[in-house]
Amino acid sequence: MYVDEVFEKVKARDPDQPEFLQAVEEVFTSLGEFIEENPQYKKANILERVVEPDRMFIFRVPWETNDGEVMVNRGMRVEFNNAIGPYKGGLRFHPSVNLGIIKFLGFEQVFKNALTTLPLGGGKGGSDFDPKGKNDAEVMRFCQSFMNELYKYLGPNTDVPAGDIGVGAREIGFMFGQYKRLKNEFTGVFTGKGLNWGGSLIRPEATGYGAVYFADEMLKTRGDSLDGKVCLVSGSGNVAQFTVEKLSQLGAKAITLSDSSGFIHDPDGIDEEKLAFVMELKNVRRGRIKEYAEKFKVQYAAADPKLDHNPLWAVEADCAFPSATQNEINEVDAQNLVKGGVFVISEGANMPTAPEGANVFLKAKVLYGPGKAANAGGVSVSGLEMSQNSLRLSWSREEVDERLRGIMAAIHEQCMIYGYDEKDKYCDYVKGANVGGFKKVADAMLDQGLV
Ligand code: NDP
Ligand code: 2IT
Hints:
With about 450 residues, this protein is of the alpha/beta class. It has 3 domains: about 1-50 and about 430-450, Glutamate Dehydrogenase, chain A, domain 3 (Glutamate Dehydrogenase, Chain A, domain 3, Orthogonal Bundle); about 55-190, Rossmann fold; about 205-375, NAD(P)-binding Rossmann-like Domain (Rossmann fold, 3-Layer(aba) Sandwich). The protein is built from 17 helices and 15 strands. The chain has helices at about 1-15, 20-35, 40-45, 45-50, 100-115, 135-150, 170-185, 205-220, 240-250, 270-285, 290-295, 330-340, 355-365, 370-375, 375-390, 395-420, 430-450; strands at about 55-65, 70-80, 85-95, 120-125, 160, 230-235, 255, 255-260, 260-265, 300, 320, 345, 365-370, 420, 425. The strands form 4 sheets. A 5-stranded mixed beta sheet has the order 1-2-4-3-5, with helices on both faces. Helix 2 (about 20-35) runs parallel beside helix 5, helix 5 packs across helix 17 and helix 8 (about 205-220) packs across helix 16. The radius of gyration is 21 Å and the shape is globular. It starts with a helix and ends with a helix. NADPH dihydro-nicotinamide-adenine-dinucleotide phosphate binds near residues 207, 240 and 350.
């Protein structure tokens, strides 16, 4: 099959980029039948074109610690595809960042952004810089040095970054400030900006809220709702925090949170007061989730790399919202989730489930919303931030939230169109999201010729 031939070429070209190959294989698996039925894509060799980024930049980022030590990190930006709009996607600062990871994230972003219904192309960037243990002055110097190179490639109609792991309001502020200084221009070149300098209401909340809205849409197809549901959440950063907030607003109960050191289990549920503690702990003091267990006298389990599974996913519940990082759910974890009663998985993180785990979910016929559909709320409100910047206006909280709800429902609808099997009475949201996202990008590429 054409998809297999192209995948072999991708593997041969980038054998050292496992996460990128994983993301491509997942999309190609979903596309097989659709591509055979629509020969125009093969004729224009769209698959081989769509897996190759438009361009990639890799650069040195030198900076100085407070003690005067000279540090060197690697920065990068992958401008993946701009068939339907300017390159759009976050920046990740984490020691694990390499080109393969940024390419996987950029590739996912292309199809995710197509699903949002907004005119957004796909890109991603970042650095192997580790913000942990650095103070504000060091983070600022790093961000300024990073921007001294990256600014050349950005622009409100060209490439518009945002946050991701390790990049939040503080980092966006420092990078936007340096961009503005270098260009002498105040434009909407970042999203996730501060509210009083061009940011959008609900952008910080949008990924978590969106993942919960997507779960709600999936539950509606079974005449069910989130009310009274017990939920597992991993991570304790931006996405996890606002997932917990929205769950509790909709009558559900989040009972876990984690960071790379371990997880907490609070059977009474993480209520408003406890969430406020988490936000202060993580966003202001930048401490570890273990402190939650000490403060509220609940169970904490340290991460154990010797285990073949993560015990967080073995806690009994109805729904799961993986919101930390890629491949945090392996096959055993997926089996444990299903065994523990979980029948809704809405992915706040990008590619948190390994392919073997995804197969467990699809076989068990649970409601499984993959990241590129379920976490698209973040980039959607980024798109709305760009619209507001172009209009030089800001919309109310209610208006942005209403639009976000509408977009998540529209994404769900697209997944149903391409993923629902009448015979099985089951929606394969992975296939739905991949085919729906791909079709929009591929058709735009066909219209625009060989560029
Ligand atoms: P944050 O940096 O705010 O939080 C990340 C959380 O995940 C932290 O609790 C962190 O723990 C944990 N984590 C990160 N890497 C690892 C790892 N290798 N192993 C274990 N735990 C880890 O990031 P976000 O909340 O913004 O992002 C979380 C996920 O959501 C990512 O997959 C991101 O790509 C995705 N996403 C984010 C969007 C956004 O708008 N921010 C939009 C769509 C998707 P620790 O502090 O110990 O590292
Ligand atoms: O993975 C993602 O969608 C993000 N990190 C958000 C991207 C954005 O441009 O808001």
